[in-house]
Design goal:
By secondary structure, the chain is of the alpha/beta class. It is built from 13 helices and 14 strands. Helices cover 29% and strands 20% of the residues.
Length: 435
């Protein structure tokens, strides 16, 4: 599940005429077409951005929001500085959460009017989205700093510059702690085709500067782009290269957009609604769990797969009733501590843990008994630590304690690329001088 924070919709010109100052002529690109393209990639929430070709005529964007009530869409408009407060409130009710400023095109709020408009939209929890070449940031910093006294500033498309000096200016802006950046449209910064390798380093630096203030977007349907047509799947793969850590990527795709655009907070899990074969497993949004006394909430990076999880899914564990989330062992970072959690644990710690049965590890977040949480202290990487609590310990017990493996004996390892044989980093067979 993911949020695309930058897309445009275009309508039939008879119904939605272009602004006289338009600089390109787009073809129709309705929301239904977008969803057919992006839904298979797991994108279920989106932010509509007013394109420059419509100027301050936001009717298509607003009509699209109006036709899709609920919490799947948000919008960013272009407007005049004297827009009435009542109009802003009506737009907010439809899902608008910001105004877009594009100094390259006429119309809308100008740079000089930005601080005053920012003060007006602050009460709505909106932001100012800026389409700028980051190389020009020195000339804009005074105004941006005044805007950020009221609302956040969001910089489109990684600052839209390949100039190293401009990139440093953007990094400096992010270091101030208020600005956001869109990790979007990398094809605008390079002549390289997908996977846009030349932009990965910059995107990683921007993400490192503001991991809680970075969002992702496709720029669908990629208007006014003269190069090879970008493929949205390649843009998502590009983000995987930029943010290989699953927890960081989840923040960019879900948690950060939820804060910026006011989407409801959510988590995702593999849920068993009725006991049965594997096809009863379903991925869906669930409320974020809350740890109770003596418990911790782990943001799951990796989950181990065990036979006990199969038993839960089949209904063979006494006392369990659906709906439930399987998954016995996990690795990840502590996201929250319940009352009376031990002092040895802290938010942000990397850990391996056993989950509380029924609220398991096949999820973005898992509740764990604090007594069964093991801080990793950097000794074991998360991808291997997920099987430490059960699979690795079971394998070690079987080899070292039950079979009492001896020097010179041979061990047949099934599935050597999974489970305990890789996870701890040192298998029981290697601990003894066996073959």
């Amino acid at each position: 599940m993911a949020t695309d924070c930058h897309l445009h919709v275009f309508g039939e010109p008879d119904a939605y005429p272009l602004d006289p100052a338009h600089t390109y002529v787009p073809g129709p690109a309705p929301l239904d077409e977008y969803r057919r393209a992006l839904a298979p990639l797991g994108v279920d929430r989106a932010v509509l951005i007013q394109p420059s070709v419509y100027g301050t005529d936001n009717r298509l964007l607003l009509d699209t929001l109006r036709a899709d009530p609920g919490d799947r869409l948000r919008g960013v408009v272009v407007t005049d500085p004297d827009v009435p407060d009542a109009t802003l409130a009506a737009w907010h009710a439809l899902g608008v959460r910001g105004i877009r400023v594009n100094p390259r095109f006429p119309g809308g709020v100008g740079i000089a009017d930005l601080p005053a408009v920012a003060a007006r939209i602050a009460g709505l929890g909106w932001h100012v989205q800026m389409v700028i070449d980051a190389a020009g940031l020195p000339d804009l910093r005074k105004v941006i700093d005044r805007v950020q006294e009221h609302v956040p500033v969001v910089v489109d498309h990684m600052g839209m510059t390949a100039d190293p000096a401009g990139q440093e200016e953007l990094l400096d802006l992010l270091a101030g702690g208020r600005a956001w950046v869109k990790l979007s449209a990398p094809y605008l910064l390079t002549a390289d085709p997908a996977p846009y390798a030349g932009t990965v380093s910059l995107a990683r630096r921007l993400l490192a500067a503001a991991p809680d203030r970075a969002v992702w977007g496709t720029n669908w349907p990629h208007p006014a782009h003269d190069g090879p047509e970008p493929h949205d799947r390649a843009l998502l793969r590009w983000l995987h290269a930029v943010a290989p850590d699953p927890a960081t990527r989840r923040a960019v795709l879900d948690a950060n957009p939820a804060r910026l655009y006011g989407f409801p907070e959510r988590a995702h899990a593999v849920v068993v609604d009725a006991f049965g074969p594997p096809d009863v497993l379903a991925v869906r949004a669930v409320p974020r769990p809350v740890p109770g006394p003596g418990q911790v909430l782990v943001e799951v990076a990796y989950a181990g797969v065990n036979y006990f999880d199969v038993l839960q899914r089949r209904g063979a564990v006494p006392g369990l009733t659906p709906p439930l989330v399987p998954g016995l062992e996990v690795s990840g970072r502590i996201a929250a501590l319940g009352p009376a959690a031990p002092d040895r644990l802290a938010v942000g710690d990397e850990v391996a843990a056993l989950t509380v049965t029924g609220t398991g590890g096949y999820a973005a977040f898992a509740v764990c008994d604090a007594r069964l949480v093991l801080p990793l202290d950097g000794l074991v990487p998360l991808d291997r630590a997920a099987t430490l609590p059960v699979a690795a310990v079971t394998a070690y017990h079987a080899l070292a304690d039950l079979t009492r493996i001896r020097a010179g004996e041979s061990v047949l390892v099934h599935g050597p690329r999974a489970g305990w044989a890789r996870s701890p980093g040192r298998s029981p067979a290697r601990s003894a001088p066996a073959r």
